[in-house]
Amino acid sequence: MFGGIDPALLLASVIVASVPIILAAIGELVVEKAGVLNLGVEGLMIMGAICGFVAAVETGNPYLGFIGGALGAAALALVFALLTQYLLTNQVATGLALTLFGLGLSSLIGQGYVGIKPPATGSVPFGPLADIPFLGKVIFSHDWVVYLSVAVVAAVWWTLKVTRIGLILRAVGESHDAAHALGYKVTRIRVMAILFGGAMAGMGGAYISLIRVPQWVDGITAGQGWIALAIVVFASWKPWRVLVGAYLFGGITVLQLNLQAAGSGIPVEYLSMAPYLITILVLVIMSSGKGRASLSAPAALGQNFHASR
Amino acid sequence: MLRLEKRPSPSVFWQRSTPILAVILTMIAGGIMFALLGKDPLVAIRTIFWDPLFGEFAFYFRGQLLVKAGPLILIALGLSLGFRAGIWNIGAEGQYIMGAIIGASVGLALFPTENRLIYPVMVIAGAFGGWAWAMIPAILKTRFNTNEILVSLLLVYVAQTILAKAATGFLRNPEGAGFPGSRNFSSYPAAGNPELIAGTGMHWGVVAAFIAVIGAYVLLQRHILGFHIKLAGQAPRAARFAGVSPNRLVVLCLGLSGALAGLAGLFEVTGPAGQITIDFNVGYGFTAIIVAFLGRLNPIGILLAGLLMALTYIGGEMASTNLGLPSAAIQAFQGMLLFFLLATDILTNFRIRLTKKEVA
Amino acid sequence: MKRRHLLATAALGLTMAFGGTAMAQDKTKACFVYVGPIGDGGWTFQHHEGALALQAAYGDKVEIAWQENVPEGADAERVLTQMALSGCDIIFTTSFGYMDATNAVAAKFPNVKFEHATGYKREHPNVSTFNARFYEGRAIQGHIAGKMTKSNKIGYIASFPIPEVIMGINSYYLHAKKVNPAVELTIIWAYTWFDPAKEADAAKAMIEQGVDVIASHTDSTAPLAEAAKTPGIIGFGQASDMAAYKPSPRVSSIIDNWAPYYVKRVGALMDGTYAQADAWEGISGGEVEIGEITEAVPAEIKAEAEAMRDAIAAGTYHPFTGPIKKQDGSEWLADGVVAPDGDLLGMGFYVEGITGDIPK
Fold this sequence. Notes:
The complex is a heterotrimer of chains A (309), B (360) and C (360). Chain A has helices at residues 7-17, 19-33, 41-59, 62-86, 91-109, 135-139, 144-162, 164-174, 176-181, 186-212, 224-234, 239-261, 268-288. Chain A has 309 residues and is mainly alpha-helical. In chain A, helix 2 packs parallel to helix 7 (144-162). Helices cover 69% and strands 0% of the residues of chain A. The mean pLDDT of chain A is 88. The radius of gyration of chain A is 20 Å and the shape is globular. Chain B is 70% helix and 3% strand. A two-stranded antiparallel ribbon of chain B has the order 1-2. In chain B, helix 2 (41-54) packs across helix 3 (58-84) and helix 12 (299-323) runs antiparallel to helix 13 (327-344). The mean pLDDT of chain B is 89. Chain C has a six-stranded parallel β-sheet, sandwiched between helices. A six-stranded mixed β-sheet of chain C has the order 7-6-8-9-10-12, with helices on both faces. In chain C, helix 2 packs across helix 9, helix 3 (74-85) runs parallel beside helix 4 (99-108) and helix 5 runs antiparallel to helix 10 (299-314). Residues 1-24 of chain C have low confidence and may be disordered. Classes of the chains: A mainly alpha (309), B mainly alpha (360), C alpha/beta (360). Chains in contact: A-B, A-C, B-C. Chains A and B meet through helix 5, helix 11 and helix 13 of A and helix 5, helix 6, helix 11 and helix 13 of B.
């Protein structure tokens, strides 16, 4: 019935389609692990998209574009950090305001950049590896950011699990008072986490404007930041599950378009709802099983910290 | 070295004056941005803050403030209850859409019957639509411990697809020559929600918002449920000992905020918007989250915050048309205003002290 | 009931008559309401280009103002009222969803001219409608697609199931089929006007299914960028020329050019010849422009496509000329019959040969 769909091509598309969400989500995961809820991912992503685009177009170098995107979004994340960590503003409201501000600012910056084509980013040359049947197409045919996104997930997992920095970060996110009593600089650690989250969201945004689409138009991220937020929750704050969640969501999105193209006969509106409904369904199944406790959020998530003494 | 010292109790003086301070700071920062964009900052700021209220055409815009603020206040009130109890409904936008669709469906199914009871039934249907949509995350949360942030947020996208289907399919105007969009309620008096007094902007949605402000105030101040909500948010363990059932609270808070969002959608679709269209929702459900926190989750505060947000929308539009400011600049300006409003609140709860010794 | 409005309008009339005239005498103010940001690179961008061309054409005699990102519904009504109040002489509302708002506001301001794009309601003498026959451009794209495809699979990325889009799909398919009976059309409904990432995914899904010519009815260049990654895939610019993707994959384009219409109407208003109109012009009126057909298309096919363009412009060829059957096999147009505009504007069916159903 769906004979037209080539699984290797489908998987390869899924891997590429999921990169922006993986990057943004893994950044937000670190932020939330540190006990900070930043709902401004969409604003950060779009800042990354425009700053990355401008940097790449002005320098002609796509690598500098990604650095520019990361820096631009990190700068915006710094605003969030100052407000929530030093002026102790409400994190939910500040995050939403950040999205509003980021959408506006990105559009102002981008005014002269509509309709320009950015410098191209090629695939990583894997030589003979790319010719392996199936795997060559699925795994060894992508640009460098695809591999970077997986590497970042691995690095975050390793850091959180094994290293001292990871331990401190988690402690801060579970109980800032206890962490403070142990002598850790709660505020400083959280600010660093927020900046990291911003830089990752910015890379994700730059991936959209430099590789996925690639062009600059207002509102280019079109809600991907919100999906990234949902994926962090879906992943139950576990790094590898971010990868699973993003591939699941991206996979169903790509699959539904492929099913349409292949003429599956399933009504289109059900197909377009499918990514959201199936993500919810999978989370329900995961969260209703055993080990429910391990699915819970960092205990201090969203709470502000002020050292009284 | 500057140091923050927590006040024993919030300062009433600063609570009243920080919004003014924030607006002044925004005027300065925004003025600089407008000047950089080559516009006269004084004119721009006067257009945003003064003209809608006291300008030449204020007779029209004062009413429009209510039209714009009504749904924001209604939704934000519902959300604030949940937020106080630590229940995160991020999907009011979806509940708003579903309220509008269910309510409108009831009205359109009865077209062209004229009966006084039609509108009240539609109002109930609208509230039910929002409530039912919010019950999905509520039940998943209580039965399967599924995170309500994710479920309510993703259901917004599902609701949007249903909306598109409604506008191009089952609610499409049969006399609309195949174009998308439902019948316009302004041409169906029994199901319409026109201005109650022409030119004031007052429609049933605004009335409902005012009633809801009073209702929420009484609930939080006088009712045991209000006490439970506050307790669950401030001290979850104590709440448990006090016999507050977390599940019951989840169902109540999500249901109430869903119903209010659904109501807002119904009033909007039958009144100011007039019809179901593909892009019927304009983000009230998300903006209301900001309104809820700007109002410090307090009913009176939410009323004021809703009006202030509405002012920046309407004034921003005027600045944009009259002065040729890009709408992006207005968005950034709104963002700044929110930053300052949130940031200056620190003065309410903390004293700033100069100290010699650094304290981490 | 309408007393306040009458007072308001009277007061306004006075301002216009006295205060405003000195300026209004020699300057005509044309205002534009946009549904998206000017930076969308597509629909709104092209309308704004038209507005700028209007300004350039008349220089000091015309003043333009605009408002971006205006949601359809209540907000549109407010923005229109504000524009009418602030002295606009003619207001162009550039999205289908503004239809009811345009007519409602036009009733209150009989002296202001309203021009609504892509709608059909003209309830008041001061409301005109205008649209462009984009299907004429789709016919030329279909011809190129039918000739150029090697896999005999061509694709169409559709937004929402509305007559405008269905018309484009039918025109595209008919003309591809005419030159290549073996051609098969793949349609993907994106359920969005604008979501670059999703559009890219849709193009990619098509390419993976063997489609090698892609037309799109969504606004971003994402499908072209995706096509550029695979040699041999071609596509078309949509709304704007998208010249960055010349000579391939972008082999031609449909450009929305609103400038001739804007210049014509405002000119008529200034010299007193303005009259209510229902304009639906295409290639002949300059509203639908066919972007340069690049060297990626063989000279012979290019010549045929250009001949078709010229025949449509001259009025000697109509893209929907019978015999044409509907998808279910029933007859729509008999041999030699040209489709009446009414059929096209409300088109809700596929022509014979297209597989799949229109989402309902």
